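Example record

The entry below shows one chain as it appears in the dataset: sequence first, then structure tokens.
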Amino acid sequence: MTLGEKIKKARTDRHMTQAEVAGDTVTRNMLSLIESGAASPSFETLSAISGKLALPTAYFLAEGDDPFPYLKEERMPGIRRAYAAGRYEECIRQLTKLGGIDDEVAYLLAYSYFARGKAHTRMGNLSSALSDFDSAKEYISKTAYDTAKIKALLPLYSAVAHNITTPLLEFESESYEKPLREGCESDFFHYVMLDSSWFFTDPVYSEHMEAKRLIKLKKYTEAIPHLLALEENKTRETYQVFVMLGVYTDLQFCYQELCDFERAYRYSSKRLSLLESCHS
């Protein structure tokens, strides 16, 4: 395509009129002449038009017709900074605007969708989580970069998102690759597996597993303070719907065993309300 044809295509792809692109920089008639090839813009004019079309000036000056390499070169430094800072929502938004894909872009999209899916899982937005996990799988298949960590964790988090009350029905622990078992979110893995023999570094998992140990010993009165502490001390950073469902289930059970049916009903209601919010 000629320079003028590139400008026209970019404008029509964005459903913009000539007047919108021209703005105060150039007249609409001059833009029409540029698009038809009857006139050539100055570098300053082309830079202004490029800005309106959100495309690098270099794309219009190059021989190729694909803007992706130029958009990537221009925008990837900011995208990499967002990725390093954990701003995965921003990464997804900016990466999908590039209009193309290569190994690096596919990897960043795979990890960003997976990370956002994890966040959705923590907050109980299960349909959104599953959608993001599907997107992560799609982009894993499009990159040659090492995605072993993501592929190992996807079955675990997908199982929780599919069945947040009893994820072990969805998850075969053997599919969690052995080399990653000890060093890749191992606390969460052993928590889901209800492995009380594991030494948890996460205080939330540790406290809940201690409560479960006491429940197994039928020490319900001793278990309850641990469970209540998990409810009372939850913060935005530590909150997980999956954990709280387990806490409410255990509190209901403890109070039932102690014949305190009023409190048992209270935590049964909290559990059902939280579960309903996951599927709303």
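Notes for this example: Residues 103-123 form the longest helix (21 residues). DSSP finds 16 helices and no strands in the chain.
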